Protein backbone atom coordinates (compact mmCIF):
# COMPACT_ATOMS: atom_id res chain seq x y z
CA UNK A 1 0.00 0.00 0.00
CA UNK A 2 1.23 3.48 -0.80
CA UNK A 3 1.75 5.98 2.03
CA UNK A 4 -1.37 7.96 1.11
CA UNK A 5 -4.79 7.37 -0.43
CA UNK A 6 -6.23 10.34 -2.29
CA UNK A 7 -9.98 10.37 -2.85
CA UNK A 8 -10.48 12.78 -5.68
CA UNK A 9 -12.20 13.64 -8.90
CA UNK A 10 -10.26 15.20 -11.79
CA UNK A 11 -12.84 17.98 -12.02
CA UNK A 12 -12.54 19.12 -8.44
CA UNK A 13 -10.41 20.84 -5.84
CA UNK A 14 -8.74 17.42 -5.58
CA UNK A 15 -6.33 18.82 -8.17
CA UNK A 16 -4.86 21.00 -5.43
CA UNK A 17 -4.18 17.98 -3.23
CA UNK A 18 -2.61 16.08 -6.14
CA UNK A 19 -0.34 19.06 -6.85
CA UNK A 20 0.71 19.08 -3.17
CA UNK A 21 1.39 15.32 -3.22
CA UNK A 22 3.70 15.77 -6.21
CA UNK A 23 5.43 18.76 -4.62
CA UNK A 24 6.53 16.51 -1.73
CA UNK A 25 7.13 13.52 -4.01
CA UNK A 26 4.77 11.31 -1.98
CA UNK A 27 3.63 7.85 -3.02
CA UNK A 28 -0.14 7.69 -3.21
CA UNK A 29 -3.00 5.61 -4.52
CA UNK A 30 -5.95 7.44 -6.00
CA UNK A 31 -9.62 6.59 -5.72
CA UNK A 32 -11.83 8.49 -8.14
CA UNK A 33 -15.07 9.51 -6.45
CA UNK A 34 -17.92 10.16 -8.84
CA UNK A 35 -20.29 13.05 -8.32
CA UNK A 36 -23.74 11.82 -7.41
CA UNK A 37 -25.82 10.70 -4.48
CA UNK A 38 -24.08 9.95 -1.21
CA UNK A 39 -25.12 6.27 -1.39
CA UNK A 40 -23.14 5.85 -4.62
CA UNK A 41 -19.83 6.80 -3.00
CA UNK A 42 -17.31 4.29 -1.58
CA UNK A 43 -18.01 3.29 2.03
CA UNK A 44 -14.38 3.89 3.07
CA UNK A 45 -14.61 7.43 1.67
CA UNK A 46 -17.85 8.19 3.54
CA UNK A 47 -16.33 6.80 6.72
CA UNK A 48 -13.23 8.97 6.30
CA UNK A 49 -15.11 12.16 5.48
CA UNK A 50 -18.67 12.67 6.69
CA UNK A 51 -18.85 15.73 4.41
CA UNK A 52 -18.46 13.33 1.45
CA UNK A 53 -16.27 15.92 -0.28
CA UNK A 54 -13.12 15.58 -2.32
CA UNK A 55 -10.28 15.87 -1.83
CA UNK A 56 -10.00 13.55 1.15
CA UNK A 57 -6.52 12.37 1.98
CA UNK A 58 -5.79 9.34 4.14
CA UNK A 59 -2.27 9.03 5.52
CA UNK A 60 -1.37 5.41 6.30
CA UNK A 61 1.15 6.15 8.98
CA UNK A 62 2.74 3.84 11.55
CA UNK A 63 -0.26 1.46 11.83
CA UNK A 64 -2.73 4.35 11.94
CA UNK A 65 -4.83 6.03 9.31
CA UNK A 66 -4.96 9.81 9.61
CA UNK A 67 -7.61 11.63 7.61
CA UNK A 68 -6.95 15.13 6.33
CA UNK A 69 -9.59 17.16 4.53
CA UNK A 70 -9.70 20.80 3.38
CA UNK A 71 -7.26 21.62 0.61
CA UNK A 72 -5.38 24.24 2.57
CA UNK A 73 -4.89 21.84 5.49
CA UNK A 74 -3.75 19.11 3.09
CA UNK A 75 -1.11 21.43 1.60
CA UNK A 76 0.28 22.34 5.01
CA UNK A 77 0.02 18.78 6.37
CA UNK A 78 2.04 17.37 3.49
CA UNK A 79 4.65 20.09 3.94
CA UNK A 80 4.90 19.11 7.64
CA UNK A 81 5.12 15.38 6.89
CA UNK A 82 7.81 15.94 4.25
CA UNK A 83 10.01 18.73 5.59
CA UNK A 84 12.82 17.85 3.18
CA UNK A 85 10.63 19.18 0.36
CA UNK A 86 11.40 22.66 1.75
CA UNK A 87 7.80 23.90 1.62
CA UNK A 88 7.48 24.95 5.25
CA UNK A 89 7.90 28.60 6.21
CA UNK A 90 10.96 29.85 8.05
CA UNK A 91 10.28 31.82 11.24
CA UNK A 92 10.31 35.17 9.43
CA UNK A 93 7.93 33.80 6.75
CA UNK A 94 5.29 32.37 9.07
CA UNK A 95 3.14 35.51 9.39
CA UNK A 96 2.61 35.84 5.63
CA UNK A 97 2.36 32.07 5.21
CA UNK A 98 -0.49 31.56 7.68
CA UNK A 99 -2.17 34.88 6.94
CA UNK A 100 -2.45 34.27 3.20
CA UNK A 101 -3.30 30.57 3.54
CA UNK A 102 -6.16 31.25 5.95
CA UNK A 103 -7.32 34.39 4.13
CA UNK A 104 -7.59 32.63 0.79
CA UNK A 105 -9.10 29.41 2.18
CA UNK A 106 -11.65 31.35 4.21
CA UNK A 107 -12.84 34.84 3.26
CA UNK A 108 -11.45 34.86 -0.26
CA UNK A 109 -12.97 31.52 -1.25
CA UNK A 110 -16.30 32.52 0.26
CA UNK A 111 -16.15 35.81 -1.68
CA UNK A 112 -15.46 33.99 -4.97
CA UNK A 113 -18.20 31.43 -4.50
CA UNK A 114 -20.70 34.08 -3.39
CA UNK A 115 -19.89 36.12 -6.47
CA UNK A 116 -20.42 33.11 -8.74
CA UNK A 117 -23.74 32.38 -7.08
CA UNK A 118 -24.80 36.00 -7.39
CA UNK A 119 -25.00 36.41 -3.61
CA UNK A 120 -23.92 39.84 -2.50
CA UNK A 121 -25.12 42.71 -0.40
CA UNK A 122 -24.53 46.45 -0.63
CA UNK A 123 -25.75 46.86 2.93
CA UNK A 124 -22.79 48.10 5.02
CA UNK A 125 -24.15 46.27 8.08
CA UNK A 126 -24.27 42.96 6.16
CA UNK A 127 -20.76 43.57 4.82
CA UNK A 128 -19.51 44.07 8.38
CA UNK A 129 -20.88 40.62 9.30
CA UNK A 130 -19.57 38.86 6.20
CA UNK A 131 -15.99 37.72 6.81
CA UNK A 132 -15.05 38.76 3.28
CA UNK A 133 -16.90 42.09 3.38
CA UNK A 134 -17.54 42.16 -0.34
CA UNK A 135 -16.09 40.45 -3.40
CA UNK A 136 -14.43 43.70 -4.51
CA UNK A 137 -12.83 44.23 -1.10
CA UNK A 138 -11.47 40.66 -0.96
CA UNK A 139 -10.09 40.82 -4.51
CA UNK A 140 -8.44 44.21 -3.91
CA UNK A 141 -6.94 42.94 -0.66
CA UNK A 142 -5.48 39.85 -2.36
CA UNK A 143 -4.03 42.00 -5.13
CA UNK A 144 -2.40 44.29 -2.56
CA UNK A 145 -1.05 41.28 -0.64
CA UNK A 146 0.51 39.71 -3.76
CA UNK A 147 1.79 42.92 -5.34
CA UNK A 148 5.56 43.37 -5.45
CA UNK A 149 6.40 39.81 -4.44
CA UNK A 150 6.94 36.61 -6.39
CA UNK A 151 5.39 34.27 -3.84
CA UNK A 152 3.28 34.39 -0.68
CA UNK A 153 6.35 34.57 1.55
CA UNK A 154 8.34 36.83 -0.78
CA UNK A 155 11.01 35.29 -2.96
CA UNK A 156 10.49 31.62 -2.18
CA UNK A 157 7.77 29.09 -3.06
CA UNK A 158 6.14 27.47 -0.01
CA UNK A 159 3.14 25.18 0.56
CA UNK A 160 0.95 28.30 0.86
CA UNK A 161 1.63 28.96 -2.84
CA UNK A 162 0.07 25.62 -3.78
CA UNK A 163 -3.25 26.65 -2.27
CA UNK A 164 -3.14 30.38 -3.05
CA UNK A 165 -1.69 29.59 -6.48
CA UNK A 166 -4.44 27.11 -7.30
CA UNK A 167 -7.11 29.65 -6.36
CA UNK A 168 -5.51 32.37 -8.46
CA UNK A 169 -4.91 30.03 -11.43
CA UNK A 170 -8.56 28.98 -11.28
CA UNK A 171 -9.71 32.59 -11.04
CA UNK A 172 -7.59 33.75 -13.97
CA UNK A 173 -8.32 30.73 -16.20
CA UNK A 174 -12.07 30.75 -15.56
CA UNK A 175 -12.53 34.52 -15.32
CA UNK A 176 -13.77 34.43 -11.76
CA UNK A 177 -11.03 36.97 -10.91
CA UNK A 178 -10.43 40.22 -12.73
CA UNK A 179 -7.46 39.82 -15.13
CA UNK A 180 -5.13 42.12 -13.23
CA UNK A 181 -1.39 42.00 -13.95
CA UNK A 182 -0.52 40.84 -10.43
CA UNK A 183 -2.87 37.84 -10.62
CA UNK A 184 -1.88 36.85 -14.18
CA UNK A 185 1.85 37.07 -13.40
CA UNK A 186 1.50 35.09 -10.16
CA UNK A 187 -0.61 32.41 -11.85
CA UNK A 188 1.94 32.05 -14.66
CA UNK A 189 4.80 31.88 -12.14
CA UNK A 190 3.32 29.07 -10.03
CA UNK A 191 2.24 27.15 -13.15
CA UNK A 192 5.96 26.72 -13.94
CA UNK A 193 6.32 24.30 -11.01
CA UNK A 194 7.22 20.83 -12.27
CA UNK A 195 4.85 19.27 -9.74
CA UNK A 196 2.00 21.47 -10.96
CA UNK A 197 2.55 20.36 -14.53
CA UNK A 198 2.74 16.65 -13.61
CA UNK A 199 -0.41 16.81 -11.48
CA UNK A 200 -2.26 18.89 -14.06
CA UNK A 201 -1.39 16.42 -16.82
CA UNK A 202 -2.66 13.47 -14.76
CA UNK A 203 -6.01 15.18 -14.14
CA UNK A 204 -6.37 16.39 -17.73
CA UNK A 205 -5.68 12.83 -18.99
CA UNK A 206 -8.27 11.44 -16.61
CA UNK A 207 -10.81 13.95 -17.90
CA UNK A 208 -10.00 13.04 -21.50
CA UNK A 209 -10.28 9.28 -20.78
CA UNK A 210 -13.52 9.63 -18.85
CA UNK A 211 -15.32 11.80 -21.36
CA UNK A 212 -17.82 14.57 -20.68
CA UNK A 213 -18.67 13.46 -17.12
CA UNK A 214 -15.07 14.38 -16.20
N1 LIG B 1 -13.56 23.25 1.67
C1 LIG B 1 -13.31 22.05 0.91
C2 LIG B 1 -14.26 22.02 -0.28
C3 LIG B 1 -14.33 20.65 -0.92
C4 LIG B 1 -15.42 20.59 -1.96
O1 LIG B 1 -16.41 21.34 -1.91
N2 LIG B 1 -15.29 19.66 -2.91
C5 LIG B 1 -16.28 19.51 -3.95
C6 LIG B 1 -15.59 19.37 -5.32
S1 LIG B 1 -14.58 20.75 -5.72
C7 LIG B 1 -17.06 18.20 -3.75
O2 LIG B 1 -16.55 17.23 -3.25
N3 LIG B 1 -18.31 18.19 -4.19
C8 LIG B 1 -19.10 16.98 -4.22
C9 LIG B 1 -20.29 17.01 -3.32
O3 LIG B 1 -20.45 17.94 -2.54
O4 LIG B 1 -21.06 16.06 -3.40
C10 LIG B 1 -11.83 22.00 0.48
O5 LIG B 1 -11.22 23.06 0.35
O6 LIG B 1 -11.28 20.91 0.30
From TrEMBL:
InterPro entries the record matches: Glutathione-S-Trfase_C_sf, Glutathione_S-Trfase, Glutathione_S-Trfase_N, Thioredoxin-like_sf
Record organism: Alteriqipengyuania abyssalis
PANTHER family: GLUTATHIONE S-TRANSFERASE FAMILY PROTEIN, GLUTATHIONE S-TRANSFERASE-RELATED
Protein name: Glutathione S-transferase family protein
The organism's taxonomic lineage, starting at the top: Bacteria, Pseudomonadati, Pseudomonadota, Alphaproteobacteria, Sphingomonadales
Limits of the GST N-terminal domain: 1-86
Cleavable signal peptide: none
Pfam families in the record: GST_C_2, GST_N
